[in-house]
Each structure stands twice: as C-alpha cells, then as structure tokens.
Amino acid sequence: MPDHxxxxxxxxxxxxxxxxxxVELAQKIAGSRKTINTVKNGVFILSTIFALxxxxxxxxxxxxxxxxx
Length: 69
Known about the structure:
single chain; 69 residues; 434 Repressor (Amino-terminal Domain)
C-alpha cells in the first residue's frame, strides 16, 4: 500500500491551529474519527466531496490542507 503521509502534515497542523480534536473535526464534516485518523496517517485518500468539506471547515483551500510539505 502506498504511503501518503506527506499529505497529512498540513491537515494535522490546521486541525491543531483550530484546537479541534479528530472527533470534533469528524463531527463537523459528518465523518468519523477513524476516517480523520486514517487520512492523518496517510492510509486513506479522501473523496473530493469529503476533501472539500474538510477544507471548508478548516477555512482553507484543498491545496492548503493536502499539499505535501
């Protein structure tokens, strides 16, 4: 399985900036904590709609949330 963890760093940083737990963030986008965790760990790549919703909740554009650093 490919490692996509380089895409998770911005997500982790933005979530921390807003002071949100994985559970709180998941609730805002009608997802689960496990989904947020698998994205953060680079195991799961989100659907476009999920990525757009996540970006909107974090007040960022998709590229800011998922661009590798």
